[in-house]
Amino acid sequence: MRYLRPDSNLESRTGTGVIDSTLTAFPSFTVNGSSMDSLQYMTDTSYTYFYDSLSMALDSIANPSFEISFYTDSLNPSIPTTQIVVWPAYYNSFEFDSLGNFTDSTFVTPDSVVYVQYDSAYVQFEVKERIEIARSITPYGMAVDLWFDVTDYRTLLMDSVTFVSTVCGYSNGWLVTNDFYFIEGVPPMNAFKVTNLWNGTFAYGNSADPIDNHLPVISLNVDSTTTYEKIRLITTGHGFGGFPNQEVAEFYDVTHSININGTDLDQHLWRSDCGSNPLYPQGAPGYTSTWFYKRANWCPGSYVTPHDYNATPFISPGGVVTLDYNMVPYTVTGGPSGFYAPEYFIQSHAIEYDAVNYVNNASIERIVTPTDAFEYRRRNPICEGLNPSVVIKNNGSAILTTLTIKYQVDAGSLQSYTWTGSLNLMDSTTVTLPPITFGAGTHTFTAYIEQPNGFNDEFVYDDTLRSTFVPVNIYNTNFVRILTKTDGSPNEVSWTVKDDQGTVLFSRPTFPAANTVYIDTVFLSNGCYSITAYDSYGDGVCCYNGVGLFRILKGNTATQIGASGDYGDFYNVNFAIDFQVGIDDEPEAADIFVYPNPTTGLIRINTSFDNSDVMTTVFDATGKIVMIKKLPVTDYRTEMDLSTLQDGLYMIRMESNGKKLNRRVLLIK
């Protein structure tokens, strides 16, 4: 199911077979189907008169008619007894002279006037049960596509179904689209019964009405055909600013519990990955957002994660299961004027299954890389020769210990990989595959699985996935400049440079000063690289603690390989270097980058000198030479061990072909 631009939930309204009634007021008449307090009308055609400037004479046009329906049967007040066609009254008929000038008007008296009266009667209806099947949170002023697996609710989605999308929050309106996609065949398990448990929005910390009042112990009869049962909790925390804990409940990292027949299971109600949301940066025009803040099981622009608990070990078919949902005790003691009182949005239900339909059945759920899918944009595009990754899932009763994954790019050679591990029923894992190769342009990646546990897959319709992707950009340069402007918390910021095997080649773990620009030059040989900026707090370098930025510049030019500031947890750019002297008029650069800095002894040096032995001298703070070595430089990199020196500040000087490059380094052992 695709759920577009939601800030809330999608509910099914299912008939329960229970008939109720409500007292309803019915009007004594309606006009074209609408109710009115009173009406004046003409029983014959009425006209509006006007002066026709072309014919220079008085003319008229008939007024449109309308229908009145009268309801006079008190036993059936919703069924009309009489219907008549009438015309408007209570208006002025205007008079004009021979020149078309308005001279006078005459009031047209209505033929009849009616006044509404109401007759009340009980109207029967079937009680509908509301069951939430999906919940997500709107982003800040942006659109988003989110997908949910709603197979568990199959019995609710049959025949004629009423759906209600509820959207709430700070907004001027949303466009919500719900699309359902169907997979042919028999599902892994037959979910045949969904039972509502605790549902509603409840205040948290209100001593006059504790939330436990709304979370009573529930006892359910387990169907005699049930072989597997799952308890699903969909809970999000909202509100903050109260005393004594102003983080409760939206920013409250807390663990509640669900007790199933005497056994407590934890519910850790927290989303720590909001700053890694693929939908970034977020912010409606005119203000910056708080999309990156960690929250109680939700992030703006993302789905709400259901907490599923396998109740099967604690039940028996035909028996009784007792459920108790327990919150951590808390009492609000006050708060500033207008604070948002803490509360929890809770939807929960028990789902019962009558059979597992397969023994050896696996599926490929997602392609993580390579893909142009929006949800994985922080990892893509990838470099040629990098490893694809896919998510597989066990849909069979047998523990999945092995399967074969085959994959290819376009119509290229088919590669094969044998996965081994251990997956229980409905468990999944991410598998990293051997590298793939491809050229420029748009490509299709295909992956499929076969032979789960050495047997033919018993359901083949979920074995294959395809993705489209484009490779990384290629730049003709042998160095990049990494420009970092820190915000008010420079201790949170760092960056790394990795090769296509994930090895960290260079890094800057610290920045000494706030609101300061740092430019580091990194020399790179031909290959594919990943440069990533991090923020340990998760708010990037923009915008509540000073306005910083992060840029990757091609050589000495202003060409940006990547740029961001409002990036949350991290900002990643994958790119390739293919440097051919003479093709690109790249200005010559001479620099040296030392890391880690400060260091405990061993340093790595990145320099514009390449493929030669470079005389390297170390000076102490007084200018005294304390070490001289000839270092072999390959692919712009070398290493040097300073651990024999005393703690302090030193100057590293490298000399080659008449050029001298200097860099300070702080030794702290």
Describe this structure in words.
Residues 1-7 and 581-585 have low confidence and may be disordered. With 669 residues, this protein is mainly β. The chain is extended, with a radius of gyration of 36 Å. The protein has no helices and 47 strands. A hairpin with a 5-residue loop joins strand 9 (91-96) and strand 10 (102-108). The two termini are 56 Å apart. The strands form 13 sheets. The chain has a 5-stranded antiparallel beta sheet, with no helix packed on it. The chain has 5 domains: 29-116, no CATH class; 131-356, Jelly Rolls, CATH 2.60.120; 362-469, Sandwich (Immunoglobulin-like); 472-589, Sandwich (Immunoglobulin-like); 593-669, Macroglobulin (MG2) domain (Immunoglobulin-like, Sandwich).
Total DSSP helices: 0
Query: Stretches where pLDDT falls below 50 for ≥5 residues?
Result: 1-7, 581-585
Q: In total, how many beta strands?
A: 47
Average the pLDDT over all residues and give the rounded result.
88
CATH classification, class level of the largest domain: Mainly Beta
* Percentage of residues assigned to helices: under 10%
Strand order across the biggest sheet?
Answer: 3-7-8-4-11
| Radius of gyration (Å) | 36 Å
Strand content: over 45%
Overall shape: it is extended
